[in-house]
Amino acid sequence: TSDSSTDGDQPASGDNVIKIGVFEPVTGENGGGGFQEVLGIRYAHQLTNTVEIGGEEYTIELVEVDNKSDRTEAVTVASNLVAQNVSAIIGSYGSGVSIAAGPTYEEAQIPAVAPSATNPQVTLGNEYYFRVCFLDPFQGEVMANYAFQDGLTKAAVITQLGDDYSSGLGNFFLKAFEELGGEIVSEQQFQTGDTDFKAILANVKNAEPDVIFAPSSVATAPLLIKQARELGIEAKIMAGDTWENQAIIDNAGADAEGVALSTFFDENDTSSPLAGEFVTGFKEFLNGNDEYLNKNGGDGVAAVSALGFDAYNVVVEAIKVAQSSDSVAIKDALKGLSLDGVTGSISFDENGDAKKDMAYIKIIQDGKFMFDKTVKTQ
Amino acid sequence: MRVKNPKHTWYSILLALVILAATIYLEFNRSKYGMAVSVIQKSLIFAVVAVAMNLLNGFTGLFSLGQAGFMAIGAYATAMLTIPVERMEAVYYMSGVVPWLMSLKRALSVLPEPVLIIIAMLIGGMIAGLFAFLIGIPVLRLKSDYLAIATLGFAEIVRGIISAPQLDQFTNGSYGLKNIPGFGSNSLSFMPDGFGVLLVPLFASTILIGFIVLVINSSYGRAFKAIREDEIAAEAMGINLLKHKQMSFVLSSFVTAIAGGMLAMFMRSIEPRAFSTIITYDILLIVVIGGLGSITGSVLGAFVVTFAKDWFLRFFDVPLIIGGFQVPFLRIGFRMVIFSILLMVVVLFYRRGLMGNSEFTWHGFFNLFRRRLKRPEVMAETSGGSMSPIIIAPGRDQAPAPLIPDPPGGEPEEEADEEAADE
Amino acid sequence: MSLLEVRDLRVSYGGIEALKGVSFDVEEGQIITLIGANGAGKSTTLKAISGLVKSNAGTILYKGEEIQNIDSQKVVEKGIALVPEGRRVFANLSVKENLLIGAYLRKNKVEIESDLANVYSLFPRLEERHWQSAGTLSGGEQQMLAVGRGLMAKPSVLMMDEPSLGLAPQLVRDIFTIIERINDMGVTVLLIEQNANAALKIADKAYVLVTGEMVKSGPGQELLNDPQIRDAYLGVTNK
Amino acid sequence: MNNIVLQVNDLTMQFGGVVAVNNLTMEIRQGEIVALIGPNGAGKTTAFNAITGVYLPTNGEVRLEDEVIQAGYPQGKMKKLYAGENNGKYGEIVDWTPDKITKRGIARTFQNIRLFKNLSVFDNVLIAHHMNMKAGLFRAAFRLNHAEETAMRQDTWELLKMVHLDDVALERANNLPYGKQRHLEIARALATQPKLLLLDEPAAGMNPQETDALSDFIREIKKKFNLTILVIEHHMNLVMDLSDRIYVIDFGKLIAHGTPEDVQNDPAVITAYLGVDA
Amino acid sequence: MGSTYLLQQLLTGISLGGAYALIAVGYSMVYGILMLINFAHADIFMMAGYFMIFSFAAMPWPVAIVVVILGTILLGVTIEKVAYKPLRSAPRMSIMISAIGMSYLLQNLATYLFSALPQAYPAIPGLKKLIKLGDLNSSMVTFVTPIITIILVVLLMMLLKRTKIGMAMRAVSKDYDTAKLMGIKINQIISLTFVIGSALAAIGSILYFTDRMSVTPFSGTLLGLKCFVAAVLGGIGSVPGAVIGGFIIGITETTLIAMGYSTFSSAFTFLILIIILMVRPTGLLGETLTEKV
Ligand SMILES: Nc1ncnc2c1ncn2[C@@H]1O[C@H](COP(=O)(O)OP(=O)(O)OP(=O)(O)O)[C@@H](O)[C@H]1O
Ligand SMILES: Nc1ncnc2c1ncn2[C@@H]1O[C@H](COP(=O)(O)OP(=O)(O)OP(=O)(O)O)[C@@H](O)[C@H]1O
Ligand SMILES: [Mg+2]
Ligand SMILES: [Mg+2]
Known about the structure:
The complex is a heteropentamer. Chain A is of the alpha/beta class. In chain A, 40% of the residues lie in helices and 22% in strands. Chain A has helices spanning 31-47, 71-83, 95-108, 136-149, 164-179, 198-207, 221-230, 246-252, 273-287, 290-296, 303-322, 327-335; strands at residues 17-24, 50-53, 56-66, 88-90, 112-114, 129-131, 154-160, 183-190, 211-213, 236-239, 260-263, 338-341, 344-347, 358-365, 368-376. The radius of gyration of chain A is 20 Å and the shape is globular. By secondary structure, chain B is mainly α. Chain B has 17 helices and two strands. Chain B has helices spanning 6-28, 34-59, 67-82, 85-91, 99-108, 113-139, 144-163, 168-171, 199-217, 219-229, 231-236, 241-267, 277-290, 295-310, 334-349, 362-370, 414-422; strands spanning 321-322, 325-326. In chain B, strands 1-2 form a two-stranded antiparallel sheet. Chain B is globular and about 60 Å long. In chain B, 55% of the residues are buried. Chains in contact: A-B, A-E, B-C, B-D, B-E, C-D, C-E. Bound molecules: adenosine-5'-triphosphate (ATP) (2 copies) and magnesium ion (2 copies). One magnesium ion binds at residues 44-45, 111 of chain D.
């Protein structure tokens, strides 16, 4: 056996190449969101594809692999990246695959930066895993606060059985909501791959909640929303960051109106010039490629794209600081890094999690994700 | 009986040495060949499961699709027992751990890690074996596809129970388990720094597969084959159907669960979704591609399928631009399309799998080069219902006319080789 | 021109050549029998005519038209039916359905009904059990059904492969009478029998097959008295 | 005379409305060759199946050397439906599985040959020795029962030689000529070391020549293995030539029994089964 | 717990059961004839969903429906010709792997072509009309599904039981060669089976997706498994069995969720299957195959 996997990937330009692995799902359950994250990374790469180390210019090369949202696959895919001598890794959409790949990266001593994986387990106890987004406990708390402040005191929680993101976020919400003094009137689970939620929703309807918190994948979201409305459920529907995807609006149409979610970024938030610049540029980038436009579901800017963008820049910045393509050096650089990203300022705590204390709440209005407010926790 | 060619024995020893040497080489250069190492690990694990499945499907004629469930049992048992005690709280971050599990783990933590891992796997295997025994009593009476769907149902039940939030403190439900020691875990070998990533699974797989091979070549293996060929006749030969089916089922489940434990060590983190029906189909695929009723086929199949799916076909996912021209179709997702097509092509053209139902022999190997394999066109298997992997011609005899005396002996079948090897 | 002419027919299974150039003629309205030991290639010959196995070489002419290697189902459409070796009844269909499916290609419902009644009168057991699924019939009952099903096709040539297999002595005799009766009705019969004695008695012409080759032929009675044939196929204790 | 090996008492087998065997009583003594004949569908094969444990008798019992191996009385739906005789005479259910009955000493062949088609002739016979294995799975797997295994193989060879199949020992069973397949089926049954051998139409599909040879073969193995044999056959030559006694059934009921001469001339048998020579 | 709630759940169960039944029948028919678990059936169903999305955009809906049904039939028959027909004489397992391969292929192709993101299923006028009965909310399709299911299945059963074609189908299922000897065109019969199975999948997909409103490449996966279970539970090969199985699974699943066991609904479904198989080893209406010894 020879290390043939690197063959053919050699770039045209000389020897000075530094490789960054992109570890994302592009197919499988989370293929949709994963691709949006990849788009952000690709855009960032398009803007910054060289880096100077010790006075020499290095070309940055992206090595993209598809982890198919599948944990078993993830380990091999992770080894694949390691074998290709990447200096750092960006990914992945979906915490599960990130957790699965974690030990591989840790052993290979290659730092990984997760753009949007929100599960605490991703970075916990893994020195090499970082992330630029906030965490589920935070997100759950944010949504619970948001709901409770709106005077919604009875909540139903619907989660996906066997899915750590969905169950975890649901659970954090549940705890926070009860702590606030709210009442959980119904807890329902569904199977991965289920497409019929009427029975669950009939239970929910019967419990008469004010709000339904249903963190789940993009594929199930429109089904849940439409079926709930068809059954005549009028409660507010809320979810987490994954729902910020145009496909949900396209699918659920009018029924999606009023759905609220927390996210990492808002393209209409004009307070940061950096973000504004990114949004304009990224839209142009999308519009220049039909496939991108099509798969992104229009030229809306998803938060995961922004996070992908930030994650890339964080890595590049760390390389600059480290002045080396050595992965351990990059890891060390990451630890002390501080950078203004399009999703806010980024620096890491002892777990490798970005210190972020603010989330954006968006509401679907007139077929668009409209910024409602930002929520900070105490 | 054919006398065994002593040359061939030497070839076999040579082959084993070459494999061992290659493994050791890879082992020492594991960081350079990370991808190869990981694909080989996975292939080895799937080879074990495939062989165990073949024992049931190919040798005993029991169409079982419960593999995912037994792997899950093994993986969870191994994981729960081997996650370092001090990491448990962090892993069960959502609901905490049941006290008795913690006490058990504390009690077990006096054991050195390698011993603990082996014990954990054996426990996983035994739990799976026990489950197999219990569900086997009612389920093994079912015929072909009914058995398949019942065992598949069992696997789904296992998965459902593991992911149930009610058991969060025990299985950590949806949140999965992580921090499982890997094959290269430092304490697993006397060598430092992750040594053993390949050698450990290689030895484990060899032992497990070897054990199944021994069983198949024993009198019990013959009884299993008899059941596969004709249950009623087997019973008339004094073979207790239920007992022998049970044996095969329990043994297969035991081995499958141990392989599940190995998978947990390979993945380092597991979750219920990793053990869905798809994994069973993948294994079935390996078994059939390799050849139903052929152990070497299953091993070969595991390597071929895993290498193809996880490695060789990967370039189909990478957009390729040659001289400014974007090669059409090549983009992410294309690999799986190609994989599916290749799969179909293999099945359509090697309808009995790569190895048919015969084992690898040097004799056959060299013959491969001497003459091109001729595939006789044989008539449709008419009953349609037979599970037998072999094409059975409807005519009731295929012998020369008895007016001419029977030719003495004749060229023995490949089976005979196996026979000779027995003694 | 004979109704059915087989010329130099060769068939092999994998590497084994089962028929090594078999030729014979079937005249319209006659009873022809093929005799030969186990594995001589008798069944293979009938299967080749039916299109169930492909021939490597040779021609089969039916009414002057080449029919070798056409689809079985087309052969049946031309009016050549086969009562296959080993019964091969449709186990999941009832006895009556098995008989009706024998008449699958026929359209005239009235005629089918009367033929059904006819088969029932030949084998009263079948009428008695018309509801029973064929798979649970006894061996002999299945054999009756297979023969009955062949009759239902109302073919111009009826090929029967060991129709008396597993039948009780009385029925064995009946079967040969039935064959003669069918023949009287104008159906050409091509018959294979282990009970060569009885077959030769009713046959207009007989052919002897040895390991895939025709070695002898002649009128049934003539072969019946051929000492060589007696020794090889008819048994000594046979009356 | 000799000891009774097989005793069948009031055996009745009913499927739905069909009474396949009706109140059959027969006995077979040590060393006899007994034939069971009757028209098609008379219930012969069904009787075999009830004796060997494939079916549970609807009513009646089967004893092997005075031990009850099968016994039944109408239960469930059959309580109402039962159309056989002697209802209420038996009150015990004994339902040995076929393998247990084989171990106890009854071996059989099948009307439609049931060999392990894809295994070698040798293995077909070797498998029959498996039931007497003492070693468990682990001992057998690790060849700790070497002596036992060797003995099994030795016995198999000897048996194959005795039945003249040693020259085709390594052939796949399916490749044997039809006649040899029948022989192999018998050999395989013999390997279970039966006291009683049941043969279901062993001569079906054989020409008169081969049938004669089979006759000799059966006599030969009977002697060599000290067997008692019950045979179903429609070839009257074979039956008359071979059997000591004959039972004749029609519609499941015994209509005659006795020596070949008695039966041959019994008018009931002639009308129901033999018919008159044309 | 109001009576509307119970009614609502009952309606959900029956409607879900109806959709399951239609797909289960497809499984059962193909199995009945080829002894093949047509793993690709659920994916044919999924593809029918995409067909509708595209044809609806391009033509008036009544035409679109016809086009979808024809397209699905074409797909089903093509799959049979490409993936199964060449394997007529191959061991059963090979055909099954071919079916799994086809299923993978369709899923991967759909992912490759249409992405993994859900696509909105068009609202077919009339079917999507919302019906309000007091507090009970439902769209027309919920009521229509079980009715259409029953009608189609009755027609199908008449075809199978009453016609020569039905008899031929059952004959082909047991023995290709002998069926040929009866003059049955077996390829035609098998194709016909796929035509019927695919047409049912197409109609099923219209009803199902109209009610659930979006399609992904994996829409068929879990559904397919459940429907296959339904077919087995009813006795695979038996059309009325599949229908009964479909309704049983749909209704029990709903009941379990209604009772608050949503976590275990799938596990219970399988448990029921296993229990039923214990009592009736060939399913509720399956032929009890007594092998004549
Ligand atoms: N499907 C098959 N595959 C391989 N060989 C076959 C097959 N069918 C028949 N043969 C061989 O072809 C030869 C002729 O067989 P065939 O069945 O035609 O004989 P037959 O004369 O009908 O014998 P019988 O009296 O046993 O019916 C035999 O040697 C047989 O072994
Ligand atoms: N499972 C069953 N259901 C209904 N009827 C059955 C069943 N099994 C056997 N029979 C009937 O029982 C009767 C006896 O069958 P059996 O096979 O014992 O006959 P046999 O005496 O062996 O006849 P042959 O000489 O034709 O083999 C037959 O009429 C048969 O149709
Ligand atoms: Mg023949
Ligand atoms: Mg019989």
